[in-house]
Description:
Two copies of one chain form a homodimer.
Chain A: H1 5-19, E1 20-21, E2 24-25, H2 32-44, E3 51-54, E4 60-64, E5 68-76, H3 90-105, E6 111-117, H4 131-137, H5 143-148, H6 157-163, E7 181-189, H7 194-197, E8 202-208, E9 210-219, H8 236-254, E10 259-268, E11 278-287, H9 290-311, E12 314-323, E13 326-327, H10 330-344, E14 348-352, H11 357-363, E15 368-373, H12 389-411
Parallel strand pairs in A: 5-6, 5-7, 7-15, 8-14
Antiparallel strand pairs in A: 1-2, 3-4, 4-6, 8-13, 8-15, 9-11, 9-12, 10-11
Amino acid sequence: MPLDPSRTVAELKELRELTGDENGAQRVAWTETWETARAWLRDKLSAVGAREQIDEAGNQWFTLAGESDRAVLIGGHIDSVPNGGWLDGALNVVAGAEVLRRIAEEGVPPVTIRVVNWADEEGARFGRSLFGSSAAAGSMRDQDQLRQLADAEGTSLPVALAEYGVDLERALDSRGQLESAAAYLELHIEQGPVLESLDLPLGVVLGTFGVERHRITWRGQAAHAGSTPMAVRRDALAGAAKLALEIREIAEQTGAGAVCTSGGVACKPGIVTSVVETAEQLLDQRHLDASMLASMLQAAKQASTRFAEEERLGVEWETIWSIEPILFDETLIDLCEEAITDVAGTCHRLPSGPLHDAAEVSRSGIPTVMLFVQSLRGLSHTKLEDTKEEHLELAVTALDRLTTKTIGWVASGGDPM
Amino acid sequence: MPLDPSRTVAELKELRELTGDENGAQRVAWTETWETARAWLRDKLSAVGAREQIDEAGNQWFTLAGESDRAVLIGGHIDSVPNGGWLDGALNVVAGAEVLRRIAEEGVPPVTIRVVNWADEEGARFGRSLFGSSAAAGSMRDQDQLRQLADAEGTSLPVALAEYGVDLERALDSRGQLESAAAYLELHIEQGPVLESLDLPLGVVLGTFGVERHRITWRGQAAHAGSTPMAVRRDALAGAAKLALEIREIAEQTGAGAVCTSGGVACKPGIVTSVVETAEQLLDQRHLDASMLASMLQAAKQASTRFAEEERLGVEWETIWSIEPILFDETLIDLCEEAITDVAGTCHRLPSGPLHDAAEVSRSGIPTVMLFVQSLRGLSHTKLEDTKEEHLELAVTALDRLTTKTIGWVASGGDPM
């Protein structure tokens, strides 16, 4: 049976019916609905002859043995956020299943082909995203924190995992799954507006942004809004306001896809009759180039020092979280660009703002690439998330072409393993 | 016995001992400590021969009958906020008591002299300030709301008032107290830094600021901090940030004591990974001149429209509260300036940012003036509130001089009654 991209669209709709409601997708990891989705995927692939396995971190693997043990991996995640979209994560595994079927139909492939459905990419129930992929990649180093996590009802993460056969203390044993991996491919909706604005269906992803996430505290002096002349005020909001505007200049001057966001300012005392004494400001900066990201952070810090002097404020920085940029494999980027150009006539190279399981796999040293398909209005994590069906079909075809090219590359020993 | 300003300082310290603790003054209206303070004041004036009366709104009056029923009033409030300062309100009544003693000593004055201790200026327990003075002035028109007010323990305002002999339904009957009033004088600490910055002990107050208090809601679009290019964002925080900075320019261009304050910005969703969708901004603008205040408001609204266009945001204005400027009596301002200059050698004219009982009295048509004494560091509503003792004594002397001048003016029929 040749590749049938329309079947992928039909199956995604079937999955939506089975695991969604009027509010959207409900495939939250470590819930019955998620288990229903995993069983559905198992059923879809039962006739293919691929061996199913749930590893120590709860990742679901389908392995089609090839002439070589060296494996080409196609990954995604069937879990969703609550009231989520029908495509985020699920597209990858359902498209991967279609590619696996096509390859199985043609006989034993030269290398092993594996589809992986990563466990709990979203972290929706316990707030810890990329669970399964970080375990398999060996980068999960927060077991002490994971043991303490609980959901909104107070159920602890270890207890919830145990209900699905996963022992947190053994999750890192899933590292064995990546030992034979020679390449990792992931298709995902863009979750942003870039491809739509360029009127392009598909793009090749260069890597995931490095992120600098900080909390900036401005300290001034509370003072009566009526009796305090303007000239003697020390207004913490003024520092935050200047920085909220300045980071946009910093992003523009940096260019090359740079983004800077101030997600909010919390003011104390925060009443209409007082000058703001303390303003806590959130800052998120992202770039694909580590040195440019460092420059953006430095520019923001320098600006904050300047504004603190101008406004006679104290200013303190506290790191919330940071991660370096993760660049995908250059050869696979080229192969992916070829595949997309074959299918769509043109291809755009773009970074990924959000993190993905592919970032964890790439960090572990396995040659990795992602391809993005256009998201309508850039919406995701909502039932409004959507992609044109013609674009979904093009995406399945492109993933199939990329898989074929990657098999050839791995079979010829072109990868660095 | 001649005027003894040092006695006022000593009595204020005595009152602090009696009604304060390590956290500051605790003379919250409609509490036992407040009642203790009222009884203390009664005791202090018992030998003067002034008739004491508690009116229908709980205001405490001490009347020294003169040759004429026409009365010069000296007002203040002995109530404080919780953990308040020793001077805010109490200075006025204790200094007024000293002036009353000095006048009584000299025989029957040509006009009647009355000291009034207004009930619940601060509104600390029920959130409704200027209770007693607004009742006596006849401007209390919120009885329906007052009936619904309750304190933090759930005790309703009418029940609390009844414990101190006040029937809310009859509070407006206290209007009779002002029928014979020919002038109203009030001494208060500045509660701001202006006199201290000018190195002056005393100033005459021109009136209380008009206030425009508004909530401004900026509406943009939530968007992923990683996947949304800068150019397509609609960031509600950008509108709020621009206006927070612009109102300072508006105040500066307006001049003449103009103040503009943005007391806070509340951001939604307010998370580090999202562009701000909604920003609710607080704005407070004050000026002594009604037309300038209106211009400042118009300038802020025009700026907000411009920023909304620049940032592709929605913007909505909602009035929280507003009050027109209340200008004090020009003749009394002149008399007060003379009295201060006599005592301190120089006098500064300044507006009052905060409201005071004097504003209620002035609104009712009675010639009114206030004098301010320097506040150290501009602090008030805290136990750190303080004024140099030499300045307190100068203030008592100036109030005494002003009272004498006002008695002469009223006795000569110079007032417009």
